Amino acid sequence: MTSLSIGAVILLCLGPVSTFGNVVFPFSRGAAQNLSIYSPAVSRFLGPQVDDRLAPVVLPVYVFRGDTCNPDNIDEDVVRDRAIVIAGNRACSYTRRFVSLATKGAAAILDTPASDAQPGRYVHFRDGSESEWHRRHPMLLVELDCGLRAVDVIMKEADSPAGLTVRITIDSNEWIGTFAAWPYQVFVRWVPSIIFGIAGVAGAYFLAVHFLLINDRFVASTVEKRRTWRRRIASVVNGFVSGHLIALAFDTVASATMSVVIGVTGFYSTSNAPAWVTLFFTMQMSGWAFVATFVSSIVWVQRLERIIPRSRRRYCWRLISLLHGDHPRVTIVACLVFFLLEVAIDIWYATWQNWRSRWFPFAPLVAGIFALLELILGANFLVGTGRYLYEVSKTTIDQRDTAVHRVLRRIWWCALLIGLSMMLYVVCGVAMIAFYKWAFRPTGWTVVWGTGSIARATGCLARVFVFQPRPRRRARQQHLTIQGKSDSLRMRSTSEA
């Protein structure tokens, strides 16, 4: 068997390697001789780009095992005029690594993959320090589209006495076209941003009305001489700590924030904000949504208790009482866990710590955890809401045109939307695990994140409208009626005395 055929057999075992790539190793006598790797520029702000139409560059490969985030630890004589494969610390931004090696005279950086994700997704990323110097510097910064075993072959041959030489020509970045295309801009950027925006505006309006209703109840139930500001504020605070207003506040803040973030950043498709902003909000404030869903389910279960005594509950309801708010301390701890888990993951993303780590891909693991939480909390919400709607509809079966049924119909439609959004979000999370290679390629990325973002935004919108307040005029009339009855009773008791 010839060396060429042996190399071909080895190549088939190396994992995904593009056959149309422009990074090759022409003088290799080992397995690397048959590698042809697709390698676009990492960032449009750093170094030469494909549009510069540079001639192919031939360089010796050097495996650097030091700290590329600290230029003081880089020996200029070692990296000068070489193509650097980073095997040491790189838990910092591309810009910082670029500057560290460029100032020491390196000729190129071959950024190796951490997974099977197609390279070039961070083409619009910047940390805010980029300038014309970074863009015009001649050092190449390309990302290799190859499997981890192929990287091991490259590093092994580069460390051998014979060394390894690479010929680099920058490939066009397929992600640039994907990000600019109308499907991505419509379904990943603008539709979720608009839905989040509607939810944020509606939630803010509903919160304002709820506060006015709380104040109206305070005025109706308190004589004028006792309406001090301290009592008024205490009344508002006591009303706010009710579960439905907490859930509404969480969804309002999360929706308004995500509307701005997705609209401005374009979810990886623009450079309008520093990279850490996009990375921090990659999970789209899911922790806030988990808290809102959890608290909302508790609200409906507590309302159901007014209709169904605990003795009539099924055993399975008692078994999962922890999800129903029966233990306040557990409820508070659970909300903190949901919230802090997402914040910790956001910080992990934003500080670049998960970038290029050579262990089980971090993103699919996070997707699986969040999909499981969404399934548990969403199902709990749907069970509580559905049971409440069923019991209330039985008690008002002959009053189809009443305000109660209008409210029930609205809540039913909102619960249906929440159920559909939950199902789509879980499907997207499973897809990122089961079809990892596809989900982190341009087409799969557009489908998964477009569907997931719309599902997340729709769920927030539906939860906001679940707690839509009744019209203030109707509530005020009820308060006046109640106040009038109480005044008449008070006058009657006074006259009898």
Distinctive features:
6% strand; mainly alpha; 2 domains; 497 residues; seven-stranded mixed β-sheet; 18 helices; Rhopdopsin 7-helix transmembrane proteins; disordered N terminus; Glucose Oxidase, domain 1; 7 strands
Any idea of the CATH topology of the largest domain?
Rhopdopsin 7-helix transmembrane proteins
Strand and helix order = HEEEHEHEHEHEHHHHHHHHHHHHH
Radius of gyration: 30 Å
Instruction: Outline the biggest β-sheet.
Output: 7 strands, mixed
What can you see in these coordinates?
- Keywords: Membrane, Mitochondrion, Signal, Transmembrane, Transmembrane helix.
- Residues 1-19 form the signal peptide.
- The chain crosses the membrane at residues 194-215, 236-269, 275-301, 330-350, 362-390, 411-435, 447-466.
- The protein is mostly helical and 497 residues long.
- It folds into 2 domains: 20-175, Glucose Oxidase, domain 1, CATH 3.50.30.30; 181-471, Rhopdopsin 7-helix transmembrane proteins.
- The protein is built from 18 helices and 7 strands.
- It has a 7-stranded mixed beta sheet.
- Strand 5 (108-111), helix 4 and strand 6 (140-143) form a beta-alpha-beta unit.
Provide the fold topology:
Blueprint: H1 3-12, E1 23-24, E2 36-37, E3 57-64, H2 76-79, E4 83-86, H3 94-102, E5 108-111, H4 132-136, E6 140-143, H5 148-159, E7 165-168, H6 174-180, H7 182-221, H8 229-240, H9 243-265, H10 275-280, H11 286-305, H12 315-319, H13 328-350, H14 362-395, H15 403-434, H16 436-439, H17 442-466, H18 472-496
Parallel strand pairs: 3-4, 4-5, 5-6
Antiparallel strand pairs: 1-2, 1-7, 3-7
Helix pairs in contact: 7-8, 7-9, 7-17, 7-18, 9-11, 9-17, 11-13, 11-14, 14-15, 15-17
